[in-house]
Amino acid sequence: MRAVVCAAIVLAIAPFGLPLFAMTLLTEALILGLLAMSLDLMVGYTRLISFGHAAAYGLGAYTSGYLLLHTSLPLPFAVLAASALAGAVAIGVAWVCTLATGISFSMLTLAFAQLLYAVAFKWTSVTGASDGLAGIPRRAGPFGITMFQTKDGYYYLVLFCLLGAYAFCRSLVRSPFGAVLRGIRENEAKTLSLGYNTRLYKIAVVAVSFALGGLAGALYSPFAGFANTDLLFWLFSGQVLIMVIVGGQGTLHGPILGAAFFMLLEHVLSLYTESWALFFGLIFIGFVMFAPEGIWGLLTRRVRA
Question: Which domains does the chain have, with CATH numbers?
Answer without folding.
Answer: 2-304 (1.10.3470)
